[in-house]
Design brief:
274 residues; two-stranded antiparallel ribbon; 74% helix; extended
């Protein structure tokens, strides 16, 4: 029995976690926990925004739901693709995830900026990420959702093609080699590493997707400049007062010296020279 298991393990490329490890009860539990933590991170980000620029809950939902649907589509695709490769599915999932979070983030950034440029040039307001009209339109949100999921599909196709290169076989052999326990490996792959990477990625992507008011930014910049100018004026006045005080003290000292050096006022043998 042990020999047959070793043969199966060798034929499958030295599995640490089993083929169904990502989709068993423990695997789904880690995935749901990760989703809840990522959602909490986006809530915390909203409260970190300045009160004058904080999004309403509806606008926040419109912005973050696009990212949520895109992340879910990518995650499910990675779970499915990890079982299609030869070898440990945990390592293949981790490689796909890290590529999505680096190269994929760059592709998303280009796609969002391109759609914003087209919306301004062609007048297609519905695809201008972060802007939904007044009052906010569900149709604009739906159009942006479809566009964002389409961008994620482009990311996944690009990453999958990139994964066909031969050197990834060498990468998967050492990326999680120090970990021997399948449960610990699964926890690292599905929870620990994705939590920290997703926290950074969601924060950055939300900045791409949210609407940035140029008026508010100009007002904040003007306010900062006015504050700096006011501080400079106060400092200049303080320095000027110190210089005036120093000059007045110097004049008093000089006048005293002049009186001492004035020969007409110096007494000789009890008489003052005139």
């Amino acid at each position: 029995m042990n020999s047959s298991e070793n043969v199966l393990k060798a034929s499958q490329g030295g599995l640490h976690c089993s083929k169904d490890a990502l989709t068993d009860v423990f695997g789904w539990f880690l995935q749901v926990l990760l989703a809840c933590l990522a959602f909490t991170c986006l809530i915390a980000k909203r409260f970190c925004e300045p009160r004058s620029e904080r999004r309403s809950w509806l606008i926040w939902f419109y912005d973050t739901s696009k990212q949520g649907m895109g992340a879910m589509a990518i995650h499910l695709a990675n779970v499915w693709l990890a079982g299609q490769y030869l070898g440990d599915p945990c390592t293949w999932y981790l490689i796909n995830f890290l590529l999505d979070s680096s190269l994929g983030l760059f592709i998303i950034f280009i796609g969002i900026r391109l759609s914003q440029h087209l919306s301004k040039r062609k007048g297609w307001e519905a695809i201008n990420f972060g802007e939904y009209g007044k009052p906010p339109s569900a149709n604009a949100w739906m159009a942006q959702c479809c566009l964002y999921v389409g961008l994620m599909a482009i990311v996944k196709v690009s990453i999958t093609l990139f994964m066909q290169l031969d050197f990834w076989d060498g990468v998967k052999d050492f990326i999680l080699s120090p970990i021997d326990n399948p449960k610990v490996e699964l926890a690292f792959v599905m929870l620990i590493i994705p939590f920290f990477v997703n926290m950074l990625m969601f924060w950055v992507t939300d900045n791409f997707l949210m609407h940035k008011s140029h008026t508010k930014r100009r007002a904040r910049r003007t306010s900062a400049e006015n504050t700096l100018l006011a501080r400079t004026k106060v400092k200049y006045r303080t320095i000027k007062k110190k210089i005036r005080r120093r000059d007045s003290e110097s004049d008093i000292l000089l006048s005293g010296d002049d009186e001492l050096l004035d020969p007409e006022s110096v007494p000789i043998n009890g008489h003052v020279l005139t």
